[in-house]
Description:
By secondary structure, the protein is mainly alpha-helical. 48% of the residues lie in helices and 3% in strands. The protein starts with a helix and ends with a helix.
Amino acid sequence: MVRLKFGGNEKSFLPNTSNKSVGKSLWAAILKSRSHVEQNSTLQVNNGDRVLFWKDVWITDQSLQARFPNLYSLSRLQDATIQEVLDENVGNSWNFYFCRNLREAEIEDIAHLLNFLATFNRGEGQDHRLWQNGTKTFSVEECYKSLEDDDLLVFPYKSVCNPKIPQKVIFFVWSFCYNAAPTMDSLGNPYDVNGCLLCKKSAESNQHLFLHCDTTREIWFYFLSAYNLQWVFQGSVRNTLWEWRRKKGKNLSLKTKIWDMIPFAIWWAVWLERNSRVFNGRYNSTSNLKDGIKTLIYS
Ligand SMILES: [Zn+2]
């Protein structure tokens, strides 16, 4: 889905950068991690199946696209992997798929390029991305630690290492960390509904619906009262999630798995209730909502 929307090469380790505006806030946040991953990792080329011949940095200290821009512009397979450019049957032989015969000035470039390529030895097995100067194999966990250490995370993924929270709920909460939930403000109120249907006092926005709405706050305080915690609501969903995680860090007596689930259960229930009111005209009472959230948490 991501590839369809933003383009990219399925054989590449990294996604394409994109200027498209559709869902940009979400995707832009992901791409912030892209350069971090690129800068902190190196490629180990084996059979050449995952490394892009022109675009990745693999045989010199810069990409072949950057070092030989003229040759790159002549290639008909600019997104090819090393494996696709290597001639499978003839040892270390290459097929560059240029769109025309080379001119004299370009012959010098190709000689330089072949000099670099002569040092390449095709290996067995798939290509790998190595992490932090090749000291570790790249993994999502190592990448996460590094992003967290460098304060580059906007979503506390560790809080959702809980198999009881469904993926669709995690993705939903993640989306409105970037103000991307389709509330009335972002849609220009296409359903002809007068503002927030949970409190009927205010315009509906991500911030309002999930944090500041009277109904939502009543639910929040109901669940917080079980923990005897003072709580000052943060300005954004994202900061609320981080604060939630910090509170857990300080108070080890909290039942941590339940603690992690509370915001997700509240937000999911609030969103379903909001949709029920907007699309079906069906209203549940706040106490029914609380019971529903308890069922989500404890079932
Ligand atoms: Zn409201």
